[in-house]
Amino acid sequence: MNSLSVIVLIPLILSLGIMPSLQSEIIPNAEALKSQGNSLSETNSKKVCGDRLCSEIPDDKNEVKKPAVMTTVKKELFPSTMDYTVNAPEIDPEKGYAVIEIGDDLYWITDGTYQMMFLTTGEGVIVVDAPMGLGDKIQQAISDVTSEKVTHLIYTHIHKDHVGSASLFPNDTIYISHVDTAKHLAMKNDPQRPVPTITFDDQYTLMVGDQVLELYYFGPFHSKGDIVIYSPAHKVMMAVDLFHPNAAPFQYFGIARDMGEHIAAHDQILAMDWDIIISGHEPILGTPEHLKFNKEFTLQVLDNAIAAMQMTQPSADYFGDLANKCADLTLEQYPDLKDIEAYPVENCVTMVFYAMID
Ligand SMILES: [Zn+2]
Question: Which domain holds residue 32?
Fold first, then answer.
């Protein structure tokens, strides 16, 4: 645990009245915490939401989302695309990006670190995200494969590193986001992130030319206004900054603001019918197996945080001791996972506080 974390977190804990001496009273119920994102083997009828079964609560978030509209135009994922779930594409060093058609008129752009997608429709290009670091390369990549101009841009969430090039498109581009993203961007008044003109609360279907995208809000699993974008024809999903396929999470579980929402989003997305997920990061595409693994990893870190609370005695650096013990357990369990040694303590800090006070 670094000194900054201690400086920030200790006053928080003290202000909440939680002292290490009370540890025996605050060891959490692991199953209740996990139930916000139910283990993959649980049936819906046994889900626990707070003090009740989820089935007793009328909440449309417990329903499996069904495609709202099915396109009649034949669009499919290319079988060869599955290679990119294992092997990264070559990045042209002169261009600094790869643009790959992974399904009919659906393109993936990556520089090896960031990812986005766009679709040609016959009536203009739909762009999903515009990472700040890609900048003018986005339009170059689009121009590599089509003469259609960009007409729509969808924000996956608020963060500038994923949408900070959104202003580099024609003035009449239609910007689409969750209502919370629009509120945030209106407050920021950032010329690099134009305020969306089309917003939605729970679900929105975008039909342009011969393409259909379904947009869903499952809750703030990462930042604010986090949405998933789904092409039912291609069975392609895009959910950014939820996880890193075949790698450990970024620090503080991707700086997740709400670990309950973060865990639950895994189940919401896995309940849908898709083969490929564009995660926003890593040099490869993701699969349902990658996402299932990430959920299992996340719940294991939760178990490790709880185990640390059960075996750690109060000390001057109690929370540092908890995070370090949790991290040691995680490192022992996943020695070969990519990036496992980058942020084990930071991820355990997030999980300890989720387990203790959420
Ligand atoms: Zn983000």
Answer: 3-61+298-357
Report the C-alpha gap between 38 and 53 in whole angstroms.
12
Give pLDDT, residue 43: 36
Whole-number Å distance, alpha carbon 321 to ligand 1 midpoint, is 29
- State in Å: Cα 57 to ligand 1 middle: 31
* Radius of gyration of the chain, Cα coordinates, nearest whole angstrom: 21
Q: How far is the CA of 240 from the centre of ligand 1 (A)?
A: 7
CATH of the domain at 146: 3.60.15.10
Q: Which residues of the chain have pLDDT under 70?
A: 1-29, 35-73
pLDDT tens per residue across span 87-142: 999 999 999 999 999 999 999 999 999 999 999 999 999 999 999 999 999 999 99
pLDDT tens digit sequence for 299-320: 999 999 999 999 999 999 999 9
Beta strand extents in 147-263 (DSSP E only): 150-154, 174-178, 198-200, 203-208, 211-217, 227-231, 236-238
Distance from residue 137's CA to the centre of ligand 1 (Å)? 20
How far does CA 178 lie from the centroid of its chain? Answer: 15
- The pLDDT assigned to 222 comes to 97
> ipTM score of the complex?
0.99
Q: Is residue 291 part of a domain?
A: no
Determine the distance separating the centroid of ligand 1 and the alpha carbon of 45, expressed in angstroms. Answer: 33
Distance, CA 247 to ligand 1 centroid (Å)?
Answer: 17
Number of domains in the chain: 2
Q: Are residues 114 and 44 in the same domain?
A: no
Q: 313 alpha carbon to ligand 1 midpoint, in Å?
A: 36
Within-domain flag for 293: no
Q: Tell me whether residue 292 is in a domain.
A: no
Distance (angstroms) between ligand 1 centre and the Cα of 224 equals 9
Cα-to-centroid distance, 311 and ligand 1 (Å): 34
Position 358 scores a pLDDT of 83
Helices marked H in the chain — which ranges? 3-15, 23-26, 30-34, 137-145, 160-163, 179-188, 251-255, 259-270, 288-311, 318-333, 344-357
Cα(20) to centroid of ligand 1, in Å? 33
Measured in Å, residue 52 CA sits from the centre of ligand 1 at 32
The residue among 266, 286, 306 that closes a domain is 286
